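Give me the 3D structure for OPSP protein.
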Amino acid sequence: GIVSLVSLAVLSYERYCTMTGATEADTTNYRKTWTGIVLSWTYSLAWTAPPLFGWSSYGPEGPGTTCSVNWHSKDINNASYIICLFIFCLVIPFVIIVYSYGKLLCAIRQVSGINKGMGRTREQRVLIMVVVMVICFLLCWLPYATVALIATFGKPGLITPAASIIPSILAKSSTVYNPIIYIFLNKQVSKTL
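Predicted structure for OPSP protein (193 residues):
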């Protein structure tokens, strides 16, 4: 899940850099692609490994069918890890996504002022994709983060195993939705397919 979140942030920043760059994208150079992949996985590993070394712990999630961070432990060790996860693996990727797509929209708006017809259509397509990406990001991850925070800081038993199933499924299935959004809302990808 964290790889998915970080990958979305890396993709949004890379898309912003590519679309606003002064030079043509080099489709034969995979250095940036591999750097993004390695960065996503390394960052994710750095945030998922601490429970293996004693900062929080892993355990059954919801009805016991999946494994996740032990959301129900109330000790400071666990609470501090969950706060860090929330900030560094949800809030920061979300801020990067909003910043990158916001700057991309501003850049496309400037181009639209120069080239009215084609620029306006492109701006609308990108705006729709940005809105859909941000809404899907929030729909997939905000319920899960909310349930996790309530389970950690709320009254014991407030979040039942049954109540945690849907947010967990939404969050874990987000990796399926993102490629679909890119395929259907990105004209270049659709043409290539």
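The chain has seven helices and two strands. Let me know if you want a second pass.
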